Amino acid sequence: MSQRKKISVAVIGCGAISDAYMTNFKNRFSSIQLAACSDLNTARMNEKASLYGIPAMSFEDILTNPEIDMIINLTNPAVHYSITKAALFAGKHVYSEKMLATTFDQAKELCAIANEQQKYLGVAPDTFLGATIQTARYLIDHGIIGKPLSYTASLSRDFEIFGEILPHLHKVGGDLAMDTGCYYLAALASLFGPADTVTAFKSSNNPDRIVHRIDSTNFQEPYHIDVENVMAAAIQHKNGVLGCFHINSDCIFNENRILRIFGTEGIVNIDDPNKFGSQITLQKPFSEEISFPLTHGFRNECRGIGAAEMAWAIIHGRPNRASKEMGLHVLEMIHGMFDSSDSNIFYHLKSTFEQPLPLPSGYIGGDEYGMWAPTEETALV
Known about the structure:
Helices cover about 30% and strands about 20% of the residues. It has helices at about 20-25, 40-50, 60-65, 80-90, 105-115, 130-140, 160-165, 175-190, 305-315, 325-345, and strands at about 5-10, 30-40, 70-75, 95, 120-125, 150-155, 195-205, 210, 220-225, 230-235, 240-250, 255-265, 265-270, 280-285, 290, 345-350. The two termini are about 15 Å apart.
């Protein structure tokens, strides 16, 4: 085991989410060797480099370093396309935070480049590899809810509050569908496979506003919301499953979320697909709703699991689960909803993907089981 090759990775973008990734790369996943980090903010880059005991390097030096196999793209969504494109042309594998790009055409181009360069390209969300969605997959695959027929997915937040701290949330690529709704759609894609058709209505409520935060340097300055903040959509999957998808980012601060799957013999309710180990409940005919035990490991903060699983895929020469094809398809689902609303027609998806294989169950891990615990990461191999 000590002689097994690890995939050497460099993190590009040392913002808030980078700590979760780098902590897990250092302490949790044996398939990855954290080799370097980079950020335009040199103070932040040097702080992370010192914290994790790795070199701080420029993006250009990382691209030309032959010892670095994979780039972890944690930059702002607006530059995902340019960073990933440069890394692929430099001969690096790339794993990107969601989404692949801000437009469907850019994402298609990245997938084509990855194919031409014969490099792996993976993309978040990777929460579908966690215990929650894998348990839902277990319930569905084992027929516990009978034949799944439909689902309801809904999410509300207050992006006026979030957006005054993170202005990109009001720009193309940062709206609620792209920022958080994609966790729901990636989970559903992993459970039901590709979609065939989407249709939607969207609107932008009160798009011209004024910054209210007195601690903001832009206090009382006007700003414009460039994207929708309410959308209701319908989705038809190729396997016949029908779904409703709703987002509202102009609601109250308290997040309200729904992901409920309806089958011929039961109903599954998933508390939060944006988390790895949130509660799942099951309701069977003529019975009360009960909490269903999680069947898989990766129950806490596991950001980077998609990159770790991709590293194992590279080592063994097999497809990765958080694939560019599924990521492209999820992005096209959102693109199709926007296009449907703008054109008042059904949108028929052009992309497709192979539904990722479920992770094997039973590899739970956990300190409470001590040395007898089956190692979680074994499920990724």
